[in-house]
Amino acid sequence: MEQTVGAKLLLLWVICCGHGRVGGLSGYTKVIEVTNGGPWGDWAWPEMCPDGFFSSGFSIKVEPPQGIQGDDTALNGIRLHCAGGNAELNTHVVESQSGRWGVWSEPLWCPDGSFLVAFSLRVEPPMTPGDNTAANNVRFRCSDGTELEGPGQTWGDFGNWSEPCPKGLCGLQIKIERPRGLRDDTAVNDVRFFCCLS
Fold it and tell me: Residue 21: pLDDT above 60?
C-alpha cells in the first residue's frame, strides 16, 4: 500500500513540476515497483532516458564482500543503458543516486534489439543483530523473454517480478541510505522504473 501511494505521489509531482532532468519526466506511462525493497534510506531524484531512447541494457555498482570484520553494502548503484537505434553505437547512460562503495560492472544487453521490460530485486531482510546489506542484486526480463542477472552479491532472495512495461523501461529512481560513518551501511535499498510512453 505504501509503495502504491508513493508511486501516485511521484506521478503527481512529475505532472506538476518534474521536467528538469534528462529527457524530462513526461515521457512515460506508469511506474513499476516490487514489494521486497529494503526499509532504509530515501528516494533520490529520478533520471530518464532521452526522448526516443529505451533501455536495452544495464550495469550495476557492487561492493565485494568485506569479510567478517567488515561492513558489507553489496548493491550501490544501477545504470540503465538507453539505446536509440543500434544499441552498441548510439547509447546514453542514466543513473539515479549511487553509493560510494564498489565498482561498476560491464553492461549486460538484451539480444537482437530487444529491450528491458520487467525486473526483480534480490534483497536481504533486516538482521538484528547483524550486518545489513538490503538490496544485493537485480535481474531484468527483456522483451524477447531473455532474463539478465547482474553480477551482484548472493545474500537474501529475489522477490517477485514487477509488472511488465509493454514498451520498455525509460527511467529509474533509487532508494538509497546515505553513509552512516562507523555504523552499519546498506547503500541501495529499493528501485522503481518508469515505463516508456512510445
Answer: no
